[in-house]
């Protein structure tokens, strides 16, 4: 049932008509997907994840991405992989349930409507996680959606 509440599509950050990266999020993580240039050996790519900053590039060149993150991450649980010419960066949210409008500060921000849809989806994920016997995939909110991180005392930690 939880998979019904997974992100349905990725958001794209496009700059000067070119897709820089795609991204999605869950209660616990933000995932970035970067298409890699062809004909560059995988060992040449690097990714450096810091609590509030990320760098991505090809060794020996200036970073392709060198930006502050919207919110802090847990670096010991964040990682990156390369597969099928895609760099997948998994950023573990420091504050579980926090809704990010973009992974990168000031770049590719979601519009208010899309941010609200993300917050609603994350709130339903939280309900599903806290009540595993129920199916919240068809649930809807009327009016404003509460913050999934703080609603009713906040997210319980195990």
From TrEMBL:
Pfam families noted in UniProt: CS (PF04969)
GO molecular function terms noted in the UniProt entry: unfolded protein binding
GO biological process: protein folding; response to stress
Start and end residues of each CS domain: 16-104
Gene3D superfamilies according to UniProt: 2.60.40.790
A cellular component term, taken from the record's GO annotations: cytoplasm
Protein name: CS domain-containing protein
Organism name: Malus baccata (Siberian crab apple)
